TrEMBL record:
Catalyzes the transfer of the alpha-amino group from S-adenosyl-L-methionine (SAM) to 7-keto-8-aminopelargonic acid (KAPA) to form 7,8-diaminopelargonic acid (DAPA). It is the only aminotransferase known to utilize SAM as an amino donor. Belongs to the class-III pyridoxal-phosphate-dependent aminotransferase family. BioA subfamily. Substrate binds at W57, Y150, K280, G313, R397. The keyword Cytoplasm applies. Pathway: Cofactor biosynthesis; biotin biosynthesis; 7,8-diaminononanoate from 8-amino-7-oxononanoate (SAM route): step 1/1. It holds the Pfam family Aminotran_3. It is found in: Cytoplasm. The modification N6-(pyridoxal phosphate)lysine is found at K280. This is Adenosylmethionine-8-amino-7-oxononanoate aminotransferase. It comes from the Bacteria. The keyword Cytoplasm applies. It comes from Streptomyces ovatisporus. It is an enzyme of class 2 (transferase).
Length: 430
């Protein structure tokens, strides 16, 4: 089809995320991608290729069209692309589950393979609710989290997103009513705030009898605001949960697989959750897949109950094609110098974003691992900011009052510098 025909059909029929129908802004038509570059069907702002500063919403950590992942997909396609997981199993799922058990913090021994990050959170919540029901404590049905978080777009995940000013405020009257602590004070390296530590302990203690679990994003709050916080707050939650008989769920969908400089963000805090959610980078951005891991305590607790099964089973659970690519993606990460690459990108982001701090309208810049954020004192003008970034040769997707980047780990130094230039341009124009 011609470029104009495709965009016209897109406008008529395709509903894009967080957009109206029909859309009010025309999306860019991508015809191919390789390495860290997206090739457009037509020139935009003087550019035919854009460096992807977003890793396709933080998932394409190896870049695009990677030969190792391509080969894994081709090899699996020749065997089978899918088979139901009920009553059957297959090598890709078994290999992936074993690899995830090996690389995640010790004690997470059981793996439930889900369709997407949001579904992995649904599964985690169901695990926790069913665990307490199996213990004869069915009244423990609520979740505790802190404000400023984001956990997905399906029902239970929406209920633990910030209900005031968050992405799902629209549903605050009908979602399950959860317990919210104040947002953690900002600053990964900042000394922990003793008053806030007390607040966390007291909130868990006050609601312990009704809490099934605490669920938070460790160290980095992603789509809720791209905020960084001290690992000490995660440690205190672990202590409080242990003291008061509450399960701890860590949502590492965005932070897992090296993004913060540790393989998993929970490692910064030196703790192990009862349940961990993984997604995004799991398949290197090739296919949708996520995982919910839990400890033997949780699994055995459910299996001893009056309903001794985890009542969840997506049609595409354990999809062989996605599992094979995920296993190859995690192997590719571990076989390479992911930690060195993330440190290199972190250094490049710190250097390149230094000038942004002095721009009019910029409130703050912050960097952690392969994450760079320019915080504005006003809402971003999305169209102007996007065009400014594209004019500098980079694809960015600002939102709210932020221009941010999460580049693929294979992004070279020159392209990291280009991303920083584009972020500054977008902040200046947005």
């Amino acid at each position: 089809m011609r470029h104009e025909q495709l965009l016209d059909l897109d406008r008529q029929h395709v509903w894009h995320p967080y957009g109206p129908m029909p859309g009010r802004t025309e999306p860019l038509l991508v015809e191919s991608a390789a390495g860290v570059r997206l090739r457009l069907a037509e020139e935009f702002c003087g550019q035919r290729e854009l460096v992807d500063g977003m890793s396709s919403w933080w998932s394409a950590v190896h870049g695009y069209n990677h030969p190792v992942l391509n080969e894994a997909a081709h090899r699996q396609l020749e065997r089978m692309s899918h088979v139901m997981f009920g009553g059957l199993t297959h090598e890709p799922a078994v290999r992936l589950a074993k690899r995830l058990v090996d690389v995640t913090p010790p004690g997470l021994e059981h793996v439930f393979l889900a369709d997407s990050g949001s579904v992995s959170v649904e599964v985690a919540v169901k695990m926790c609710l069913q665990y307490w029901r199996s213990q004869g404590l069915g009244g423990k049905q609520r979740l505790l989290t802190w404000r400023g978080g984001y956990h997905g777009d399906t029902w239970q995940p929406m209920s633990v997103c910030d209900p005031e000013g968050g992405m799902h405020e629209l549903w605050s009257g009908v979602l399950p009513r959860q317990v919210f602590a104040s947002a953690p004070p900002s600053g990964f390296d900042a000394p922990p705030d003793e008053q806030y530590l007390r607040h966390l302990r007291e909130t868990v203690a006050r609601h312990a009898d009704e809490l099934a679990a605490v669920i938070v994003e460790p160290v980095v709050q992603g789509a809720g605001g791209m905020r960084f916080h001290s690992p000490a707050y995660v440690r205190v939650l672990r202590e409080a949960c242990d003291e008061h008989g509450v399960l701890l769920v860590l949502d590492e969908i965005a932070t897992g697989f090296g993004r913060t400089g540790a393989l998993f963000a929970s490692e910064h805090a030196g703790i192990v959750p009862d349940v961990m959610c993984l997604g995004k980078a799991l398949t290197g951005g090739y296919l949708t897949m996520a995982a919910t891991l839990c400890t033997p305590r949780v699994a055995e607790g459910i299996s001893r109950g009056d309903v001794p099964v985890l009542a969840h089973g997506p049609t595409f659970m354990g999809n062989p094609l996605a599992a094979a690519v995920a296993d190859a993606s995690v192997g590719l990460l571990l076989d390479g110098d992911w930690a060195g690459e993330v440190r290199r990108i972190e250094g490049g982001l710190r250097a390149g974003l230094a000038e942004a701090a002095g721009l009019p309208g910029v409130r703050e810049t912050r960097v952690l691992g392969a994450i760079g954020v320019v915080q504005l004192d006003h809402e971003v003008d999305m169209e102007r900011a996007t065009r400014a970034a594209a004019g500098a040769g980079v694809w960015l997707r600002p939102f709210r009052d932020m221009v941010y980047a999460m580049p693929p780990y294979v992004t070279g130094d020159e392209d990291v510098a280009r991303i920083c230039t584009a972020m500054c341009a977008a902040a200046a124009e947005g």
